[in-house]
Amino acid sequence: MVVAELSPSYTKTSLHSSQLSFFSSRLSDHRRISLPRPQNGRRVVCSVASNQVQAPSPVQTEEAKTKGDCYGVFCLTYDLEAEDETKSWKKLINIAVSGAAGMISNHLLFKLASGEVFGPDQPIALKLLGSERSLQALEGVAMELEDSLFPLLREVNIGIDPYDVFQDVEWALLIGAKPRGPGMERAGLLDINGQIFAEQGKALNAVASRNVKVMVVGNPCNTNALICLKNAPNIPAKNFHALTRLDENRAKCQLALKAGVFYDKVSNVTIWGNHSTTQVPDFLNARINGIPVKEVIKDTKWLEEEFTEKVQNRGGVLIKKWGRSSAASTAVSIVDAIRSLVTPTPEGDWFSSGVYTNGNPYGIAEDLVFSMPCRSKGDGDYELVKDVIFDDYLLRRVTKSEAELLAEKRCVAHLTGEGIAVCDLPEDTMLPGEV
Amino acid sequence: MVVAELSPSYTKTSLHSSQLSFFSSRLSDHRRISLPRPQNGRRVVCSVASNQVQAPSPVQTEEAKTKGDCYGVFCLTYDLEAEDETKSWKKLINIAVSGAAGMISNHLLFKLASGEVFGPDQPIALKLLGSERSLQALEGVAMELEDSLFPLLREVNIGIDPYDVFQDVEWALLIGAKPRGPGMERAGLLDINGQIFAEQGKALNAVASRNVKVMVVGNPCNTNALICLKNAPNIPAKNFHALTRLDENRAKCQLALKAGVFYDKVSNVTIWGNHSTTQVPDFLNARINGIPVKEVIKDTKWLEEEFTEKVQNRGGVLIKKWGRSSAASTAVSIVDAIRSLVTPTPEGDWFSSGVYTNGNPYGIAEDLVFSMPCRSKGDGDYELVKDVIFDDYLLRRVTKSEAELLAEKRCVAHLTGEGIAVCDLPEDTMLPGEV
Q1: Test the A interface: residue of B244, B321, B336 with most A CBs within 10 Å
Q2: A 328-357: CB under 8 A from B
Q3: Per-residue model confidence (pLDDT) at position A435
Q4: Where is the Lactate/malate dehydrogenase C-terminal domain (chains A, B) (predicted)?
Q5: pLDDT digits over B271-282, tens only?
Q6: Among A26, A61, A77, which residue terminates a domain?
Q7: Which chain A residues are within 8 Å of B77, Cβ to Cβ?
Q8: Which of A49, A319, A328, B88 has the most CB atoms at less than 10 Å from its CB?
Q9: A10, closest residue in chain B (CA to CA)
Q10: What's B328's domain CATH number?
């Protein structure tokens, strides 16, 4: 076991050597120590490069153990309140990202760190969750975050145990999921990923902020979110989201293309239901330049037969053209989804999110995670939009997606604490281009 | 040959059907037409989906031909001056990006489009340059840009001919370069990439804005930039940059780590010379909390023997850990480099850029692209910083990098119009992890 010695310049900080603890041996290089909070409640952390590590007796603290492993320059002491440029900043927020070594995260983390999501006065701590296999890659990501010198990014921790990584997080962006193996059906995927999200739900329940907002991106995201919230009974179910924002964005783009208008003219687009091929991009309530879409796009056949397919095939077309899945635009849609919760929704508009059905005004079955139209005051919370209309066509399709989600729920009963799972998923409804 | 018919909703725009032209057959899907500028000078473009394409007689215009191929929703009509939200915006700027289907661009393009580089009131037109081989991938990138619904991103064109793509561009971010083949020396790389940059220089000279700012990222970037500017005699040589900002950022991070301070406390870091292993991260003039680095970090041996290596090995370590090269942090450093030219440099600080030596105050050989300390008023231009000091150690190393750049220049004389090339590059000075 090795212990830390302060580097010469260290005396310039207010760090006390008695606060030193020795570090976990989990990480291979550039390991740093988390230090216990000093009496005044401000967190102080210390930097030791591995070649400066020597003698004295280790002081292991409980808190250092549960904080996960801070990385490199992000273990350094700072005091935001002592600096002119930073003293007006908000309180640091902790954001966990799972699947942190993957391609979506590789876009998302840099957006979070740059300030474009939470604003220029919101310092950020990133908690990166990976797997044993991806730990080296996580260090690579942390290195690139170091080299980017983002002023707002004050802490980066990496780890593989959600009980460490989710400690005190105010946001959990759950991107990591196992991809479908060869020949695997949605039911199989539900089971293997459901287990991950059950564990992560338990971890959030145990260690996250009591008002953590959870955004599930890993597929099948609606039912993963349901499993997650069922395993986190002490966190409000309303705080869990399944990402359908990329679908919404794609739907807006296709409506704009068809109408011959720029995409900023399209509003009030709802994605209803499951993030699968049963999802319903709603053109009945959508508007173009404030006018109902059906008054602008008179081609009903296109709306009813081609529009949804165009939205859903987007990922598949992209993989064919670009050879990769849509990491960049998925990351943008996660940013959009978060921003929609932390900034007030523009007057008269709404956004889609897969949220828990509990007293919803549309008659959708309760106790599901279902994508519906939401509005936010910008406080992180949302309310469902009431003034939407249904016709037979829309209702029939929403009902079909509801039936699928009910079937998915029966299929994961063993993971939600509701008895024995019964899987009767008739068809593969994974979206093209998704895994 | 096919020609365009307006979609039904098209009558809602102010487009005149006489402005229609038929489109190039270069792209396989979602092709759109660039239309000629109307009399009032405002550009009007039109959208046609391929399944709406039918009869009448084509009207091909010169301008449509030279504008390259606009993509999808970005071919739609809009009028920024007619909208409340956009009429206070600045004039649209055209930004070309080469290697647009590569990983660095996959990060950079979304940063440009989101507004985080040029600000929230600067509408953007992206001109994506790829190769025959990458054309499908370019379409994939354009699709993801469509699906991201960035309000500021108003036009996206894709193409493989720099004479099309560079038309009227105000920024040219030259990222694309051929990677080193197996066993290829720097001299070989200089030749094959030099030819690309000679052609791109000629194209910029012919069709770009007369004050275009050019940032060369593709390696070997200094000499590529020199070749480029020599082939563009009608564009001020001062407008050409070779990217050394990632090196500067990495140097700041390493100094911060060593000093035990957060990286925002490190300033005045110069990268001198070539973006290669002869580059000189300058700790003599650098400051930490405003104090000369050598007064903060007393470990001279570390500064002289380990610091530079740590900066230079960063890319190699990253590839080992993460399995990929540092696309994300490179893109961040390109953003930093652009921002440093379009926002005023903070009082007393500076930034590094590889720029043309022409009357430099340091006694560095003229007629090279050499990384030096710069300051900007934020107008896109820069001036060299005069108040830097040299000691024997720094001077010796700067001289070595200068010698290398002079040798590289002799090696590409056939591409700069200076006679017969003589290659006497003694060693491989590519940075670890770069291609």
Answers
A1: B321
A2: 328-329, 331-333, 336
A3: 66
A4: 244-414
A5: 999 999 999 999
A6: A77
A7: 260-262
A8: A328
A9: B260
A10: 3.90.110.10
Averaged pLDDT, B112-118: 97
The answer to whether the CB atoms of B137 and A249 lie below 8 A apart is no
A166 within a domain of the structure (yes/no): no
Tokens encoding A161: 């145990």
**CA angle, B204 as apex, B199 and B209 as ends, to 5°?**
175
Which ipTM value was assigned to this complex? 0.86
Q: Please indicate if any CB of chain A lies within 8 Å of the CB of B51.
A: no
Q: Identify the domain containing residue B324 by its residue range.
A: 245-416
Q: Which of residues 66-85 of B touch A (CB under 8 A)?
A: 72-73, 76-78
Q: Does any domain span residue B103?
A: no
- Residues of A designated catalytic: 275
Among residues B77, B109, B132, which one ends one of the domains?
A: B77
Per-residue model confidence (pLDDT) at position A83 = 86
List active site positions of B. Answer: 275
Distance from CA of A426 to the nearest CA of B (A): 31
Rg over CA atoms, chain B: 23
Other CB atoms within 10 Å distance of the CB of residue A270: 27
Answer whether the bond into residue B36 is a cis peptide, omega within 30°. no
Which residue did the predictor score with more confidence, B2 or B180?
A: B180
For residue A320, list chain B residues with Cβ-Cβ distance below 8 A. Answer: 136
In a domain, B265, yes or no: yes
- B423 or A335: which leads in pLDDT: A335
Residue B322 pLDDT? 85
What lies within 8 Å, CB to CB, of B213 at 6+ separation is B170, B171, B172, B239, B241, B341, B380
Q: Where is pLDDT greater, at A286 or B20? A: A286
The pTM score is 0.87
pLDDT over threshold 70, residue B11: no
| Chain A residue at shortest CA distance from B318 | A140
- Answer yes or no: is pLDDT of B224 > 60: yes
Coil, helix or strand at residue B110: helix
Q: Is residue B412 part of a domain?
A: yes
Whether cis (ω within 30° of 0) applies to the bond prior to A220 is yes
* pLDDT value of position A68: 57
CB-based contact, B41 to chain A, within 8 Å: no
Total count of domains within chain B: 2
Indicate the Cα dihedral angle A338, A342, A345, A350, nearest 10°.
30
Contact status of A14 with chain B (Cβ, < 8 Å): no
Determine contact, residues A428/A276, Cβ cutoff 8 Å. Answer: no
Cβ within 8 Å of A, B 105-134:
106-107, 110, 114, 116
What's the per-residue H, E or C state across chain A? Answer: CCECCCCHHHHHCCCCHHHCCCCCCCCCCCECECCCCCCCCCCCCECCCHHHCECCCCCCCHHHHHCCEEEHHHHCCCCHHHCCCCCCCCCCEEEEEECCCCHHHHHHHHHHHHCCCCCCCCCEEEEEECCHHHHHHHHHHHHHHHHCCCCCEEEEEEECCHHHHCCCCCEEEECCCCCCCCCCCHHHHHHHHHHHHHHHHHHHHHHCCCCCEEEECCCCHHHHHHHHHHCCCCCCHHHEEECCHHHHHHHHHHHHHHHCCCHHHEECCEEEECCCCCCEEECCCCEECCEEHHHHCCCHHHHHHHHHHHHHHHHHHHHHHHCCCCHHHHHHHHHHHHHHHHCCCCCCCCEEEEEECCCCCCCCCCCCEEEEEEECCCCCCCEECCCCCCCHHHHHHHHHHHHHHHHHHHHCHHHHCCCCCCCCCCCCCCCCCCC
pLDDT at res. B435: 65
pLDDT digits (tens, 9 = 90+) for A360-396: 999 999 999 999 999 999 999 999 999 999 999 999 9
pLDDT digits (tens, 9 = 90+) for B354-407: 999 999 999 999 999 999 999 999 999 999 999 999 999 999 999 999 999 999
